[in-house]
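Table 4 source record.
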Amino acid sequence: MKTVTLPSGERVPALGQGTWCMGENKAARAEEIATLMLGLDLGITLIDTAEMYGEGKAEELIGEAIASRRDQVFLVSKVYPQTARERRGGRVASGSLRRLRTDRIDLYLLHWRGACRSPKPWRHSWRCKKSRQDPPLRRE
């Protein structure tokens, strides 16, 4: 499988499994979990999600699907721009970590960069991350 090299030097798959709309239909839950697991079996080890997908239900579904295989997965999640402020960002990350049943998120992104009202959204997000006492969000 083709890979992409991140600035850290880590190589991740160029193709990942997206989870938009997953976790929203209880009747489809078993099939969605099986689909994610099949993707892992086929070598598609990057899973992309966001706190906004099903208002956290996609993260919960992923947490269940990867519970016994966490070390095989490169996990990407995203935070709402409006919650990536200093006073709320840490709580959001903690919620994602809890829903994903993990101690880390390998790549944590700011969702919808252009929608952020701050003229320097990355500065707000970085201060939020630097000031937090939560578990790490990435591989050490």
